[in-house]
Write a structure and sequence with these properties.
The chain is α/β, with parallel strands linked by helices. It folds into two domains: 106 residues; 88 residues, no CATH class. Helices cover 54% and strands 8% of the residues. It has a five-stranded mixed sheet with strand order 1-2-3-5-4, with helices on both faces. Helix 3 crosses helix 5, helix 5 packs across helix 6 and helix 6 crosses helix 9. It is globular, with a radius of gyration of 22 Å. The chain starts with a helix and ends in a 6-residue tail after the last helix. 35% of the residues are buried. About 10% of the residues have low confidence.
Length: 233
């Protein structure tokens, strides 16, 4: 009986040590990568589940409806959706900072999640970010073959963002010849001032690219070519 007691205490000490270690590790992850922690446990960050993988700071079903509408835009362009991610929506800047957001309106986390700030909690921004997720999902390992200007321009086209595209046959809001310069420029340099010129030009070029090749099916063909290792850009 006396030998069993120390043995039990030994196991208790191990269990306590493991629990403490896990707690420290989880805390370190939350500090170093709050977005990852928030996606793993939205409720731990004060977000309410609205169903369908949507979590919001406010228990407001309009958030779920805007995500549904954004997903429909993506599905309409691609003929369906392959990327299915958690969507975390903040109603306050404090919430967005808490889950790892910055000055951007929205942030896509690879193919797993989407974070939306108060300024980005609308159908167009959600569709733009979901379009990024969809393209990454479909490209797989070939995603690095897509230049930033095409990636961003395509997201604008899919989301039909009226800030960067007009309603007419030629949807460009800048001259096409001028817009073509974005294909040769460094994307980070074009967008470093936070202005709209990069997105206006990229949206113009990609909208022409899609239209000249028969519509959204051209993007599906592009994805197939890139996955097969064919040089496209």
């Amino acid at each position: 009986m006396s030998a069993a007691v120390p043995k039990r205490r030994w196991w208790i000490r191990i269990a306590i040590g493991v629990t403490v270690a896990l707690g420290v590790a989880c805390g370190a992850v939350a500090v170093a990568a709050p977005s990852v922690a928030a996606v793993a446990c939205p409720r731990c960050y004060g977000l309410t589940g609205l169903g369908g993988g949507v979590y919001a700071e406010r228990d407001d079903d309009s958030y779920r409806r805007l995500v549904d509408a954004a997903e429909q835009r993506v599905a309409a362009f691609y003929g369906g959706r392959e990327a299915h991610a958690r969507v975390l929506i903040c109603a306050t800047d404090a919430c967005y900072r808490r889950i790892g957001g910055g000055a951007e309106k929205g942030r896509a986390l690879r193919t797993k999640a989407l974070l939306l700030s108060p300024a980005g909690a609308n159908e167009v921004i959600a569709a733009h970010e979901l379009a990024h997720l969809e393209l990454r999902q479909r490209l797989g390992a070939a995603q690095s073959a897509v230049p930033p200007w095409f990636n961003e321009g395509l997201a604008v086209v899919v989301s039909a963002d009226p800030r960067y595209l007009g309603p007419g046959p030629d949807r460009c809001r800048v001259p096409y010849g001028e817009a073509l310069g974005v294909t040769r420029a460094d994307w980070s340099a074009v967008t470093k001032d936070g202005g709209d010129q990069g997105y206006l030009r990229a949206a113009c070029v990609v909208s022409h690219w899609v239209a000249d090749r028969g519509g959204p099916s051209a993007v599906l063909n592009l994805i197939s070519d890139l996955r097969a290792g064919k040089p496209v850009f």
